[in-house]
TrEMBL record:
Listed name of the protein: Glutathione S-transferase kappa 1
Gene Ontology biological process: glutathione metabolic process
Residue ranges of coiled coil: none
Gene this chain is encoded by: Gstk1
Reactions catalysed, as given in the entry: RX + glutathione = an S-substituted glutathione + a halide anion + H(+)
Organism: Formicarius rufipectus
InterPro entries: DSBA-like_thioredoxin_dom (IPR001853), GST_Kappa/NadH (IPR051924), HCCAis_GSTk (IPR014440), Thioredoxin-like_sf (IPR036249)
Family membership noted in the UniProt record: Belongs to the GST superfamily. Kappa family.
This enzyme's EC code(s): 2.5.1.18
Length: 190
């Protein structure tokens, strides 16, 4: 997320955020979180630290964080982002970035209502807009829209997050994981 936001103007790409529900993707594809495999979790810790240093993004993670990550539901946050996408899409990037920072850098909750509203405030949303979007998260319209965007990701072949679909020369290209950005840049000629 952070690197794509940084490179969008350098690569001259039209970056579009699409909220998706990770739990739904994992369930529908039969995928399991990488941290569930002890050796993969051990490697992932090292890899995330290397990636954070290389890309100069504020990620800090330890073995204890895997349980926090597995315990935290992102559903309410994704529904909130979906509600914003449906009403005020110009806030998608700052809102997504603030959720990312809160969860991955600050290790703070993103699932409780007061925390979602705090993130919205930091992203520049007015209290009125935030409250309206928060009231929408339980509506069938928002739930259906999130299911649609998650199903769309599945159609492109997504099986987890982060998933990036680059439409280039009329063809979609799926990239999974933050370690595929060099391949993405190659496909788009950057």
């Amino acid at each position: 997320l952070q690197v794509l936001c940084r490179y969008q103007h350098i690569w001259n790409i039209d970056l579009r955020f699409r909220p998706g529900f990770l739990g739904g993707l994992m369930q529908k594809t039969g995928n399991k979180p990488p941290a569930m495999l002890p050796k993969r979790a051990e490697y992932l810790l090292k890899d995330i630290k290397r990636m954070a240093k290389y890309y100069q993004v504020p990620v800090s993670i330890s073995g204890d964080d895997f349980q926090r990550i597995l315990r935290t539901s992102s559903l309410a946050a994704m529904r909130f982002i979906t509600a914003i996408d449906m009403t005020q899409p110009q806030y998608l990037e700052p809102l997504s970035r603030e959720f990312w920072i809160r969860f991955w850098s600050q290790h703070e909750d993103i699932s409780e209502p007061e925390n979602i509203l705090t993130v919205a405030q930091k992203a520049g949303l007015s209290p009125e807009l935030s409250q309206k979007a928060f009231e929408m998260i339980s509506s069938p319209k928002v739930k259906d829209r999130l299911k649609e965007t998650t199903d769309e990701a599945l159609k492109y072949g997504a099986f987890g997050m982060p998933a990036v679909v680059a439409h280039y020369n009329g063809e979609p290209h799926l990239f999974f994981g933050s370690d595929r950005l060099e391949l993405l840049s190659s496909v788009i000629g950057e």
